[in-house]
Amino acid sequence: MNHFFKLLAAMSISLPVLASGSFNLLTYNVAGLPDLFSSGNPAANTVKISPLLNDYNIVLVQEDFSYHSDLLSQNNHPYKSDHSGDIAVGDGMNLFSRSAYTDFARIKWNDCYGVFDSGTDCLTPKGFHMSRHFLNGGAIVDVYNLHTDAGSDSNSLVARAKNTLQLLAFIEANSKGHAVIVAGDTNSRYTRSTDKFHDFIAAGFNDVWVEKSRLGSYPQAGTAALQDCADKNSPNCERVDKILYRSSPAVNLVLNDAYVPAHFVDQNNAPLSDHDPLAAFFSYSLNPNFALTAALGGPHGAFYNDLAELHAANYPPLTSVSLRAGSRVDNLSFTYANGLSRAHGGNGGSLATFNLSSSNYITQVTACEDKKDTTRIFYLEIKTSQNNRIYGGTYKGSCQTFNAPAGMAFIGAYGRAGSELDKLGLIAKKR
What is the per-residue pLDDT for 115? Predict the structure, then answer.
C-alpha cells in the first residue's frame, strides 16, 4: 500500500480534479461471539453474511470475534483491517473498504463496566477505530467505527456517556478540518439523556436515520424510547446502530439515502444477526477553491490540519513560511496576516524562513520520507512563484514533488508531527 500512496502523491495534483463522487457505507453488528454465548447463530450465519458485504464500499462491523475467517470467506474488498483477535483479546471491530486508507488506529475506551454481568463490557477491550480514506478526486474522509459500553444499569450508563465524550474529544483533536463519518453499535438512544449522544449533533454531525426517516427532527432527551419497529425504517424506531456524518471546508458530504437493508436474512427470512445492518448512501463534492495533496510520511506523532483554523479565521493571507531542519525536518510553520501562526514539529535544527506576498506565493514543495526508528520527513524544499526557495534536511528515501494546481497556492499543511515532522500533506487554495 506504500507504493500506492507514493504514486498517488506524485499524481494527485497533476491530474484533473474530479469534482464529485459517491459511495455507500454499511455498519453491522455481526454477533460473532462464540456460538454458545452469542444471541445470534454465527456458526451458521456468518458465512452467509460474507458475500452480502460486497455491495458496499465501506463496511464497519462489530462483534467480529470467533468467525472472522467465515466473514472473509467470500469478501472481495481490497483493503481490510487486521483481525484484532477473539473475545477477551480483540475489540471485535473491523473495516472492509474499496477505498485506500491510512492512519488506521484502534483506541480502547478509558471506561467500562461489567466483566461477567452488566453487558460484560470489560471482558473485551472495546473502543473505536479510526481510518483516513482517500476517495476519487482527492477527497479525504475520516471514518470511525465504534462499539460503546452496553447495559442499562447506572454504572453502565455512566461508562457509556464517558465513551461518547472520549470519542468526540478524539475526533476534535485528530480529525479537525476533515470530513468525518461515525458509525457502529452505539448502544445509545437520543431519548436517553444520560448517553450524551446529542453532543454529536452539537458538534455539527447529522444522523442519517433522523435526516431520512424523521426529516431532521431529533428525538428529545428524557422522553420515552422510540421502539415501534414493525417498520424498521420508521421515524418511531430508534436503533442503537447509527451512522453520523459531518462535512469539511474541502469536502461536502450529502446523504442520498439511508435505510435498513432487507436482504440480510436466511432462507427462512430470519435475520442473520441479532442486530439489523444500517446502510447510508453518500455523494460528495470537492470545494473548487481547495486541493489537498496526498500525504508523505509515517503513522506517528499527533495529527494536525491547518484547514480548520484557516477556515475559522476566513483564510488570512500567508505572510511567511519557516523550516527547521538538521539531518531530518524538525518543524514546518506558517504565519498569516492576522497574526495566526501554525507550527508543526519540534524546536531542533537550524531555522530558515522567508516572507511571502500576493505576488510571491508557494507553488512547489518537494518532500522525502525515510526511516529513523519510524518513517519521518527527511527533506523539505519550498519554492515560490518568484523562484525563491528554502530547504533543509537530507535528500534521501522516497521523494515527491507537489505542484500547486494552476491558479492556486499552497497555504498550509496537514499530517502528523511530534518532536519532528512525521507526515506531510499540503493544502492549496485558489488565489
Answer: 76
Q: What's the Cα-to-Cα distance from 316 to each of 139, 364, 413, 431, rounded to whole Å?
A: 23, 20, 15, 12
- Sole residue written with cell 478526486: 137
Q: Could you tell me which residues are beta bridge partners of residue 81?
A: none
Percent over 70 (pLDDT), the chain: 95
Do residues 345 and 329 touch, judged by C-beta distance below 8 A? yes
Amino acid at 3: H
305: left (phi over 0), alpha (psi -120 to 50) or beta: beta
Residue written as grid cell 499527533: 302
pLDDT greater than 90 at residue 35: no
DSSP state of 16: P
In 320-411, which residue ranges form alpha helices assigned H by DSSP? none
- Segment 86-123, tens digit of pLDDT: 988 999 999 999 999 999 999 999 999 987 665 678 98
What is the helix (H) or strand (E) element at residue 6, kind and residue range?
helix 2-11
From CA 300, how far away is CA 417, in angstroms rounded? 7
Q: Which parts of 265-368 fold into alpha helices (H)?
A: 306-312
Cell reading at 257 = 439515502
Specify the pTM: 0.93
- Cβ 181 vs Cβ 141: under 8 Å: yes
- Separation between Cα atoms, residue 404 and residue 362, nearest integer Å: 8
Q: Which residue blocks in 141-214 are alpha helix, DSSP H?
A: 154-174, 198-202, 208-213
Could you give the CA distance from residue 19 to residue 33 in angstroms, rounded to a whole number? 43
Q: Is 426 helix (H, G, I), strand (E, B) or coil?
A: strand
> What DSSP string describes 23-80?
EEEEEEE---S-TTT-SS-HHHHHHHHHHHGGG-SEEEEES--TTHHHHHTT---SEE
Q: Which residues are bridge partners to 351 per DSSP? A: 324
Alpha-carbon distance of 410 to 387, in angstroms, equals 14
168-219 residue pLDDT tens: 999 999 999 999 999 999 999 999 999 999 999 999 999 999 999 999 999 9
Amino acid at 81: S
Asked whether the beta carbons of 204 and 197 are under 8 A apart, the reply is no
Average pLDDT value for the chain: 93
Type and span of the H or E element at 251? strand 251-259
Could you report the per-residue pLDDT of 364-377, keeping only the tens digit for each?
999 999 999 999 99
Q: Mind listing the pLDDT tens digit for each residue in 283-296?
A: 999 999 999 999 99
